[in-house]
Amino acid sequence: MGAARVCDFGPLKMMAEVWGRAVGGSIGQQPEWRQDEIIFAASLCSSSLLQTQTMDPRIDSRAPSVEGNDNADINAPLKAAPKLVAPEPGISHSLISPSIRDLILHLPDQPPEHCPGPESQSAGKGDACAGCPNQQICATAPKGPDPDIPLITARLTSVKHKILVLSGKGGVGKSTFTTMLGHAFAANPDAQVGIMDTDICGPSIPKMMGVEQETIHVSNAGWSPVWVTENLGVMSVQFMLPNRDDAVIWRGPKKNGLIKQFLKDVEWGELDYLVVDTPPGTSDEHLSVNSFLKESGVDGAVVVTTPQEVSLLDVRKEIDFCRKAGIKILGIVENMSGFVCPKCTHESQIFKATTGGARRLALDMNIPFLGAVPLDPRIGMACDFGESFFDNFPDSPACKALRDVVRRVGEEMGVDTTYNED
Question: What residues does [4Fe-4S] cluster 1 bind to (predicted)?
Fold first, then answer.
């Protein structure tokens, strides 16, 4: 019986090799794989082949099998089913890690809307898993601590401070504020700053930074961010799309997998600040970023809102999320706080703070109020042209308010953000 099990392991290993080759990897490059991982890989491969043969009449169900034949052609299943899992648009095979743990982040190919992800403890057991063809595979897959967390922690040891920029409501200027915060930090020529855009389905940071036509480069050290200036770099999914107008229609596991690769594979070098822009709400991206960065340490989150109650309503939920997730709240910023005329500098209230605005909310919820940044039509113009509002209009009321916000953020982190401009 024992000998039979040893013999059975060979075909499974070949099936895992087939799976690895399907996404550009090879089991021969993974000597550390355990037997249970190879069996799991083989089960994924076998399941996908079975589904493909069942659903696609063009594929001959009599395709050669690797089982029970040590001399079988391990490429035969690939010839019968050339696309086990289609790679994501804009991401080449060379950019996808060949390890099993990375592969399962891209499965299933069409996950349920609220798929918890194959590595989740509720994988295959949650309500969203009902009816998924991979439910049984996910439920029986080996679970344990994410082995990539130590790799992420090691990669980010050279990053001194990590800041999340959050908002409960979309359209409050969170990404715009992120770019201005990045430029403000980078105004100090001795500071190295990075901006990571985790808004996978709505990446706007590259446009605002004037680098939307750029692409990332891959070296032995990892993915290289796109550098806007000598001390300000950006990483975004926008750089990986074949066309800038291509939609990224991904669900949780695929978005989470890309965020993990951003953190694990991007070679930032020595950074003083890494500013992470997130999508609105409290979704998969927020949970992923928090879980991946927990061991490396996050200084905290800056929450952006506008003065009106409809925005503050969602900000309260965002604050609750931070507290439940153990994320320190550096403070709240009231964006679009009044309109300042560029000519006469008169300020008008466009979005009235009917319930006291962010200042009152900060007081009620016992969190720091970082400041109020007024509206300025030149901010939108600077973003459209990919220019730095902070550098081009240093005397504007909005720019002066932003300097105060940066100073307050530094105080909350225990960092002196001031510098001698001379």
Answer: 115, 129, 132, 138
**For residue 381, is it within any domain?**
yes
Has 383 been labeled as part of a binding site?
no
12: containing domain: 2-107
Q: Can you say whether the dihedral through the CA atoms of 131, 136, 141, 143 is positive or negative?
A: positive
Structural domain includes residue 52: yes
Residue 399 assigned as binding residue: no
Residue 322 is labelled as binding a ligand: no
- Determine if residue 326 is labeled as part of a ligand binding site: no
Q: For residues 59 and 176, state if they share a domain.
A: no
Residue 132 lies in a domain: no
Higher pLDDT, 63 or 406: 406
Q: Which of 128-142, 270-284, 372-386, 405-419 has the lowest mean pLDDT?
A: 128-142
Does residue 79 share a domain with residue 201? no
* 98 and 159 fall within a common domain: no
138 annotated as ligand-binding: yes
Tell me what the mean pLDDT of segment 101-108 comes to: 44
Q: Which of 49, 79, 107 finishes a domain?
A: 107
144 is in an annotated binding site: no
Structure tokens at 119: 């590595």
**351 vs 271, higher pLDDT:** 271
Mean pLDDT in the chain?
76
Residue 401 sits in a domain whose CATH number is 3.40.50.300
* Total count of domains within the chain: 2
Q: Is residue 141 part of a domain?
A: no
Q: Are residues 47 and 158 part of one domain?
A: no
Residues 201 and 85 in one domain: no
Maximum Cα–Cα distance across the chain: 89
Confidence of residue 377 (pLDDT cuts 50, 70, 90): confident
pLDDT of residue 121: 65
Residue 400 counted as an annotated binding residue: no
